[in-house]
Write a structure and sequence with these properties.
The protein has about 110 residues and is of the alpha+beta class. The protein has a single domain (about 20-105), classed as 2-Layer Sandwich (Alpha-Beta Plaits). The protein contains four helices and four strands, in the order H-E-H-E-E-H-E-H. Residues about 10-15 have low confidence and may be disordered.
């Protein structure tokens, strides 16, 4: 029994180590689906990008890194700015794109 409890505790303690790393960017200037699609396409072409999710209502772009890769916030900001939009805020979160989508869906 004690071995089971210890094993479970160790498994839960290491869980955050395996969480996906994503960057959420708040972007001004996105007003339509075409805007969102353009940003999504540009960010998807970046080498470290695994997945992209754009929430047009919240003006948020979430980018998940490929396993073993690190997202470059400056490069993401430059890509979005080059597309004609303004990045207001960047934050790193330990969530996958699927988790971020689920949160957005739950708020609706």
């Amino acid at each position: 029994m004690n071995k089971l409890v210890i094993s479970l505790a160790l498994a839960l303690a290491t869980l955050p180590l395996f969480a996906a790393t994503s960057i959420k960017a708040t972007v001004n200037g996105m007003v339509c689906a075409f805007c969102a699609q353009g940003i999504e396409k540009r960010i998807s072409n970046m080498p470290a990008t695994k997945a992209v999710f754009v929430d047009l209502k919240k003006k948020t772009v979430a980018i998940e890194a490929k396993e073993g890769q690190t997202l470059d916030g400056d490069a993401i900001t430059a890509e979005i700015t080059d597309a004609g939009y303004a990045v207001v805020k960047l934050e790193t979160v330990q969530k996958s794109i699927e988790e971020i989508k689920a949160e957005v869906k739950a708020r609706k």
